[in-house]
From TrEMBL:
The lineage of its organism: Bacteria, Pseudomonadati, Pseudomonadota, Gammaproteobacteria, Pseudomonadales. The keyword DNA damage does not apply. It holds the Pfam family DUF2569. It comes from the Bacteria. This is DUF2569 domain-containing protein.
């Protein structure tokens, strides 16, 4: 019990995780505002997704819409993760792991789908490779940390529902 209390708290390696989340939400929100929003606001989306125009490809509309929506979902998820982190909520490790796995699936899948439009370009350009490397670092370092760290187990305990056994013992 004493060791658990000493390990409890948002410090140690956990600080790096929350810094990574703040950077992730900032970068993804910036991408939405600097890249995706102008495509929809300046008429580029119409030019790319209207049959008969010079740059038309039937994949543009689903790619651009799904990328924007998924990035909005990631921003919301990062914000939720920061909330769970600050409140030391018991769901933080699970939601964090699910988010990292989702990102690790989305990045190569998105790169592959985009390669169907950009047939002469490499699937993994420099930016995609950096994003995938960041995600793989999180997948291979931070996910195992979430699963085995005593600090994580001691810290993220708030709002945990009581088990049925605890209710039975209290009611007896």
């Amino acid at each position: 019990m004493q060791e658990s209390q000493e390990l409890r708290g948002l410090r140690g390696w956990l600080v790096l995780i929350v810094i990574g989340l703040v950077i992730s939400i900032s970068r993804t929100a910036y991408s939405l505002l600097a890249v995706h929003y102008p495509i929809f606001a300046d008429g580029s989306f119409t030019l790319l997704s209207t049959p008969g125009t010079e740059l038309y490809n039937p994949l543009w509309a689903p790619i651009l819409v799904s990328e924007a929506l998924i990035n909005v979902l990631f921003v919301a998820t990062y914000a939720y993760l920061i909330y769970l982190f600050i409140t030391e909520h018991y769901l933080f490790p699970k939601v964090y792991i699910a988010t990292v796995i989702a990102s690790a699936v989305f990045i190569p899948l998105d790169a592959w789908v985009c390669s169907l439009v950009f047939v002469d370009e490499p699937i993994f350009d420099a930016n995609t490779t950096k994003e995938l490397a960041r995600t793989l670092i999180a997948l291979f370092i931070w996910v195992p940390y979430m699963l085995v760290s005593r600090r994580v187990k001691a810290t993220f305990v708030m709002h945990k529902p009581q088990s049925a056994d605890a209710h039975t013992a209290v009611g007896s």
